[in-house]
Amino acid sequence: MRQSIIVSALIASVAAQKGGGSIVSPYRKDDSGGSGPHKASYKADPALAKHTIYSPKTPPAEPMPLIVWGEGACANQGTAFVNLLTEIASHGYVIIANGPPGTPGSPMGSGSTTASMLTQSIDWVAKGGDGGKYGKIDMTRIGAAGQSCGGIEALTVTMSDPRIKATGMFNSGSFSTNPNISKVKNPIAYFLGGTGDIAYKNGLAEYKTIPATTPAILFNKDGAGHGGTYGEIQGGLFGKAGVAFFEYVFRNDTKAKSAIFDKSSPLIAGGFEIQTKGWK
């Protein structure tokens, strides 16, 4: 089944590049450092040369969750989703994206990435490769996420690596029935862009097949398409939804919980339809 998941990832990559819709909405340069309490930035680290690291410029005293990120189209370009990832990092996260830095907002990169690069990122931190340069990292709070083909990379490692405690599927979903989805026990969220999103049917179908006991969320914004709002300042509405998911899962934040579960939440007011299941 692992082989079929990898094949699905390749299909997703081709579809995203051949008229299936842009993987990033029109890019707007964002120098805000994110809306969170810890202004963030990205950098390359020669000790992990095939990746891009997002983190608070001044790390908080408390240990931060780690998120490993797979790029849309499995592109070897770690700054395609720079606004989104900077926004999440500004709330006190270290994010390691597949691919070295490139042109911000551009999905193009030389070559492609693999799910194993997400595992490489986790192993690098676990072995102390980061040297504490990016702040304290809590290895009990690790998330895997990605957009389109990168989401399939994230799901692949989620089903094989018990260190991952939450999964974010941004405009993503398996391209065929995935019986191994039952292996997902920890929280998972799908962020979809309506019927114009090439991943909409796949993501919706996968969400529906997740066991009822698994905490799951479906965020869907009709009309957003495959590119979501990632190119907007601070990642736009999809950025707010991503922050809410991780803040609720990793910090049990009450504001994040309200954003997801309250019918009058700003996410719903902004156009998201939100479905949930499996939460206690």
From TrEMBL:
Pfam families: PETase (PF12740). Residues 83-257 form the PET hydrolase/cutinase-like domain. This is Alpha/beta-hydrolase. Keywords: Hydrolase, Signal. Residues 1-16 form the signal peptide. Gene3D superfamilies: alpha/beta hydrolase. GO terms for molecular function: hydrolase activity. The keyword RNA-binding does not apply. Residues 22-42 are annotated as: Disordered.
